[in-house]
Specification:
The structure is a single chain. This protein is mainly alpha-helical. The chain has helices spanning 9-22, 26-48, 51-67, 78-100, 108-115, 125-142, 147-158, 163-170, 174-197. It has two domains: 1-102, Rna Polymerase Sigma Factor, Chain: A, CATH 1.10.1740; 122-199, Winged helix-like DNA-binding domain superfamily/Winged helix DNA-binding domain (Arc Repressor Mutant, subunit A), CATH 1.10.10. 74% of the residues lie in helices and 0% in strands. Helix 2 (26-48) crosses helix 3 and helix 8 packs across helix 9 (174-197).
Length: 199
């Protein structure tokens, strides 16, 4: 596939990394994440005005981008494509948050109207298999964490508990839960980078 001649040197470097990533090079994934993680995080933080949500959405944005990386076309910069994915995912998140906070005082009709657009995503067998492989990889990475960090990641991402539910479960202040989860995610990224560098 031909690269757009108007792409900057940085965009060309990104495209080379994308090509390596599509061939399964984990170091290329780690480098792309390292290049854009902070920029994505701060953009999302402005949109949601909540550090914890911004952290979760940053991880989700990279997850979606890497899952669909073969769809990226080099007629525009990878960063443009990545920021679009992150923005759209964040808008969906904000929309779902609004519809999930429908007041109990509303009539059933209004509630149905607010929730009828939310449909359960149906995965085809190939997507299911890819997701299972990703979960397997994630679990093997998580198993390398210290027990307290491992427990936090499992409760948050595998059991999908809220910060409040985790705080209750572990009998910890919510601020401690958020701080330790942030640290656990940092450690996970480092494990991922170390794993990548050995490949």
């Amino acid at each position: 596939m031909e690269i757009n001649a108007n792409l900057s040197e940085k965009a060309r470097r990104d495209y080379m990394l994308v090509q390596r990533a599509t061939e399964g090079d984990q170091r290329a994934y780690a480098e792309l994440m390292g290049r854009y993680r902070d920029a994505i995080y701060y953009m999302l933080l402005k949109m949601v005005n909540n550090a914890s949500d911004a952290e979760d959405l940053t991880i989700e944005a990279f997850g979606k981008a890497f899952k669909n990386i073969t769809q990226y076309a080099p007629n525009y910069a990878f960063s443009t494509w990545l920021f679009k994915i992150a923005t759209n995912n964040c808008i969906d998140f904000i929309r779902k948050k609004k519809t999930s906070h429908v007041s109990l005082d509303h009539s059933n009709e209004e509630h149905e109207k607010a929730t009828k657009d939310i449909q359960a995503p149906v995965l085809d067998p190939e997507e299911t298999l890819i997701n299972e492989q990703k979960i397997k990889l994630m679990r093997s990475l998580v198993s390398k964490l210290k027990p307290r960090y491992r427990k936090l990641i499992e409760l948050r991402y595998f059991n999908e508990l809220s910060y409040e539910e985790i705080a209750e479960e572990l009998e910890l202040p919510i601020g401690t839960v958020k701080a330790q989860l942030f640290r656990a995610r940092e450690l996970l990224f480092n494990i991922l980078k170390n794993t990548s560098s050995k490949m």
